[in-house]
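User: Hi! I have a protein structure encoded as tokens and I'd like to know what sequence might fold into it. I'm fairly new to this, so please keep things simple.
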């Protein structure tokens, strides 16, 4: 178990920098596994050029689907499975992948529309350092196939990762960006939230940064109370990573809890309603502990976070051709 610091501090709005920290180039792992809500449910994962399929509850292997070149998966509000290949978004139709839309740039990520509508949010761009270049956010209507540019997320913000959140039961799109601000004149990682209702997308929180420079951010309903938390993997002044849990407080966020230093931690992700952080040869799940939190070690340690899913309230992972129950209490 990893201890931490509990308490309310670090109200985050547009915060001026206290120091400069050079962050390593750390890319978010986009999901290569998902759970399709069929009957019975199916855990699916991209592995070796195939979509491996397993039927719940004991994850009986099903015939794989050839999936050359596919890099990531997402389940839409329509219950269908979608995948990325180069500059295209594809949908699984039986045992065949069919094109839904294509883009001028490579598709880097897709997430379901935050309001539960029949749409996907699509991030395109060109791999670059420290984040994507020439990136843009789109709305893909799954009913009509119509693609529209989400103008509220300006290209100049250089979006590089998407997430889904809720504040006061309002659906929001979380966007990691990379830009200069008046408080921090050099380009740096920022985190923005947008209200998302159908065709209406508008900014509601344009955070200059978190309370400290961050690597990655995840959003989840950690306490199951409908109040989604923002969890940041951040660096201190010595460039040592740790995890901070924030709660929304009107305009901005307030820190609830911070872990001790997590040597080597480089990735954090929301897996359903759970948040997992990964370091070399170690991984933890954020667990509610009274009014605070703690980090529970995961066993077995997954090789990455992209093969993890949540089903029936538990974490599962697919690697080495098998489905593993991942425990962390």
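Assistant: Happy to help. Inverse folding works backwards from shape to sequence: for each of the 329 positions I chose a residue that suits the local structure. Here it is:
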């Amino acid at each position: 178990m990893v201890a931490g610091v509990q308490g309310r501090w670090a109200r985050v709005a547009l915060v001026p920098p206290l120091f400069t920290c050079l962050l390593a180039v750390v890319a978010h792992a986009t999901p290569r596994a998902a759970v399709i809500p069929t009957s019975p449910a199916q855990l699916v994962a991209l592995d070796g050029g195939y979509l491996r399929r397993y039927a719940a509850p004991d994850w009986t292997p099903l015939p794989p689907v050839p999936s050359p070149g596919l890099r990531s998966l997402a389940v839409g509000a329509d219950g269908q499975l979608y995948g990325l290949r180069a500059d295209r978004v594809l949908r699984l139709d039986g045992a065949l992948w069919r094109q839904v839309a294509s883009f001028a740039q490579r598709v880097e990520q897709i997430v379901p529309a935050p309001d539960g509508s029949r749409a996907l949010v699509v991030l395109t761009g060109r791999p670059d350092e420290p984040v994507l270049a020439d990136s843009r956010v789109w709305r893909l209507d799954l009913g009509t196939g119509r693609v529209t540019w989400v103008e509220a997320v300006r290209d100049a913000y250089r979006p590089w990762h998407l997430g889904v959140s809720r504040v006061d039961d309002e659906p929001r799109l979380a966007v990691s960006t990379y830009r200069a601000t008046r408080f921090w004149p050099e380009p740096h990682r920022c985190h923005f939230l947008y209200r998302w209702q159908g065709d209406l997308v508008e900014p509601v929180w344009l955070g200059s940064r978190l309370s400290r420079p961050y690597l990655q951010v995840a959003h989840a309903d950690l306490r199951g109370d409908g109040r989604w938390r923002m969890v940041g993997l951040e660096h201190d002044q010595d460039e040592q990573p740790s995890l901070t849990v924030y709660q929304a407080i009107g305009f901005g966020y307030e820190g609830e809890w911070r872990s001790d230093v997590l040597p080597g931690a480089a990735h954090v992700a929301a897996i359903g309603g759970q948040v997992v952080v990964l370091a070399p040869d170690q991984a933890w799940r954020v667990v509610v502990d009274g009014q605070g939190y703690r980090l529970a070690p995961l066993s077995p340690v997954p090789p990455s976070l992209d093969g993890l899913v949540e089903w029936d309230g538990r974490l599962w992972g697919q690697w080495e051709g098998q489905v593993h129950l991942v425990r962390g209490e």
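A useful reference point when you look it over: The domain at 28-275 is CATH 2.130.10.10 (Methylamine Dehydrogenase; Chain H). Feel free to ask if any position seems puzzling.
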